[in-house]
């Protein structure tokens, strides 16, 4: 029996929010509906942030209300604070999970949300407590877990300290973000071994960016350390607003292609997923960074 790997597609939120040109709401809804029919079982649809902060997601509530998503797909939304949770709960029946986020370092957290780590963590603890009371599953996302562009090396124990508080608040999943693509496979392998020791009763998720071309190598290292949950973005969309040059997430189609070649099971139809990436590339009218989108999946049956 092949081992199963869980994948959460984050392109409709993490990917779209970094696009400079406004994507039409109709296109967002159509792309989300197509992704939801590829075999993906986890899909981050939008974020309830202020429209002046992330203009691209100003239509988030409309997208969430309109998208026809099968019942067997777990829909998540990113929640920045309690006000965001209030706004999201208006459509409580449309999603099952929330993702809350903060950075592991003071400098990146200040640059990203203009708060100290403690301020963000305390606020997130309140959000998680309330969300659990609404019957929602909660994921805590810790950005720059492997390295910070402002502070350099990040002490893993500091990251795990944050994770422990999030678990205590009610998070069932902790995601570690390589937000600006600084991680390397050796580091990742050691990190996830240590993470499992510190956080033994929670789902651990890896969120790698391909800024320096090492995302898939880091996925393999995480797999070797027992990680079986990943976040990715179709077409290699995404990035980080601070600092400049922090390019997109590992492409979902590249990730799925590699996992299938390595005999892991994902439940995802790769051909349908590649078609979604082709369509978002058409909508954005520019080439995307995904390798499988360019070369196609491996075909062992060609003459």
- Straight-line N-to-C gap: 29 Å
Shape: globular
Strand line-up across the major sheet: 1-2-3-4-5-6-7-8
Number of H- or I-type helical stretches: 12
Measured by DSSP, the beta-strand proportion falls in 15-25%
Class by alpha and beta content: alpha/beta
The helical percent reads 40-55%
Summarize the model shown.
The protein contains twelve helices and eight strands.
Descriptive report:
With 303 residues, the protein is an alpha/beta fold. Helix content is 41%, strand content 15%. Strands 1-2-3-4-5-6-7-8 form an 8-stranded parallel beta barrel, surrounded by 7 helices. The mean pLDDT is 96.
Spell out the blueprint of helices and strands.
Elements: E1 6-9, H1 11-15, H2 25-35, E2 42-47, H3 60-66, E3 74-79, H4 82-89, E4 97-103, H5 106-113, H6 117-133, E5 137-143, H7 156-169, E6 173-178, H8 185-198, E7 203-208, H9 215-224, E8 229-232, H10 252-261, H11 270-284, H12 291-295
Parallel strand pairs: 1-2, 1-8, 2-3, 3-4, 4-5, 5-6, 6-7, 7-8
Helix pairs in contact: 2-3, 2-11, 6-7, 8-9, 10-11
Please name the defining characteristics of this protein.
303 residues, alpha/beta, eight-stranded parallel barrel, globular
